[in-house]
Every structure is written in C-alpha cells, then in structure tokens.
Amino acid sequence: MSNSIILLVSESHDNNRADTFLSETIEGLTRNSAQRLISEGKILLNNCPIQKNTRLKTGDSLACTIPSPTPYEAAPEAIPLDILYEDTDIIVINKPRGMVVHPAAGHFCGTLVNALLHHSGTSLSGIGGVLRPGIVHRLDKDTSGLMVVAKNDKAHQALADQLASREMGRVYHALCLGRIKEDSQTIDLPIGRHPTDRKKMSTIARGSKSREATTHISVLERMHRFTLVEARLETGRTHQIRVHLASAGYPVLGDLHYGPKKPLFKLDGQVLHAKALCLRHPSTGNEMTFEAPLTDYFIDAVGKARVMR
C-alpha cells in the first residue's frame, strides 16, 4: 500500500533542495528517507524524475508516492519500573537514564512503553497510538527522572491540556560546562529542526519551522569550571534544555550532541535529571507534586566537577 500526494513549492521554499523540501514538508519523513524515495523514482518533479540535490522553483509540482509504514505494535516486556505513584488515571514514573521512552527506529524493545504494557496491559490511553500508549510527554534516552503516564484517554487529554496551557510544572537539574555569572536568567529562543543536521534541534532553524521555547535557569552552585543549575520549563520542545543551555554557551556536561565531542569523566550521556513534577490530578483536580532523587550518575559527576581544576 502507498499514498500519492501532490506538493506545490511556495515562494518560501524557492531554491530549496528537493530532499530538504520533502523532509520539511511531509510529517515524519526524514531527509534520508526522502533521498531513498527520490532514488527509487517515487518523486516526480513536473512529471520528470529528479535528483536529491535538484533545486526547486516557486510553482513547481512534486508528485510523491509514499509507501505506507509497516504496521508495528509494541510488545509487553517484563522490565522493572520505579513507580512513585499510581491510581486508575495516572502513573508517575522515575525513568532511569539510558531507557528510551517509546519504540522507534533502532529501538523496538526495551523501552518504557514495553515495560508499561507489561505492567498495565491495556490500561493505557490510546491517544498516542500503538507505539506510544499512555505517553503524554517524553524524556530523552539519557535524561533520568519524572514522567507522568495516562491510563485512559480522558486523563491523557487533561494532562495534555495542562502542558499546552503551561500549568504543569517541570523542574530539572543539570550540570553545565562553564561558570554562569547570572544567578538567574530566562532563555527565550524559538527552537526548530537544525537546518543541516536532522538529528539535532537548533535556535537557528528556519523561522517557519521554529516554535516558541522558554526556559528559566537558576544557579544552584558554581564550581571552578562548572555550574549546577535548576531549569524550569515553560514550554516543552524537543531537547529544549540542552539546546538552550548550549546556545547560551553552557552545554550540559556529557551532551555529545550539543557540547564537546570528547566527554569529561568518561561520561556517556548528559548530566540532566527531571527532578520535580507538579500537576493537577485529571479527575480530582487536586494539585500533586513529586520529586525524584538525583541518580548516582549525576551525583558522581557533580563530585568530580567540584574537585576538578
């Protein structure tokens, strides 16, 4: 099965490469996938085959044949979960560092969703689809800490509304490279897909693809070469804290995507932890606050940072 669509090139995409245009226009299509479709002859420009680096002009017409994705459903796996709270509506989990939240390319097992399906069976909201049941918000693989999961669609929608209206409080701790001078600051920079590296987000993304992003930073401790900070999210964009701190010149320690490629202390992931979560219960409306202790990985990195000169 496949889907056929026609795309018209607008003035804002004039002179764009064909593969870039396709990946930015068709939701879920990566640049590599776009290049593969072009090489397979499934993309026609004004009824003619094209190359991946073909430059488009305003008014061009692209006929695209997009194969339907291969159906996949996440399978239950007996993976231990650190559950801080659970009732008939929600589960609050302390996610370990190194665990992917939901199945995706390269990670179809061992994820939080696989563990949740074993723990809760079908008692998870279906709004996120078969690969993301119950998932209201996400943490990066190497970010540890608090997440709330919805056990039914009503709870999912209520929690999603809290995120959208910025009512849900999310507080992170991070260890940054460099000494931050200001005791507090707000980083208010839109975030979008990086213009050349599709695996990264950026504050220099093209305007039409950027989304508002705001992070409030407070210094907890200054060291000789590092700063321990608290980050409060106002919005929740992909990699937001990591991108914002890197854009300010203080990348999260151990973050190989947005910081130095050679990690200190033999770190194998960013020193970032979702420390606190505040929400309104989707059924009772009661305010609920949860905290998750820092991981040994985080504490060890801070200890080494304190003595490093």
Structural notes for this entry:
This protein has 309 residues and is an alpha+beta fold. It folds into three domains: 2-67, Structural Genomics Hypothetical 15.5 Kd Protein In mrcA-pckA Intergenic Region, Chain A (Roll); 71-165, Pseudouridine synthase (2-Layer Sandwich), CATH 3.30.2350.10; 168-309, Pseudouridine synthase. 19% of the residues lie in helices and 28% in strands. β10 and β11 form a beta hairpin. The model has no long low-confidence stretch (mean pLDDT 90).
CATH architecture identity of the largest domain: 2-Layer Sandwich
Q: Estimate the mean pLDDT confidence.
A: 90
User: What structural class is derived from the secondary structure elements?
Assistant: alpha+beta
The string of secondary-structure elements, in order, is EHHEEEEEHEHEEEEEEHEEH
CATH class of the largest domain: Alpha Beta
Radius of gyration over C-alpha positions, nearest whole angstrom: 21 Å
Tertiary shape: globular
Fraction in beta strands: 25-35%
State the fourth-level CATH superfamily of the largest domain.
Pseudouridine synthase
- CATH T-level fold name of the largest domain: Pseudouridine synthase
Domains, number: 3
The parts where pLDDT drops under 50 for at least 5 residues are none
Q: Considering DSSP H and I runs of 4 or more, what fraction of the residues is helical?
A: 10-25%
Main sheet, how many strands, which sense, barrel?
A: 9 strands, mixed
Distance between the termini: 60 Å
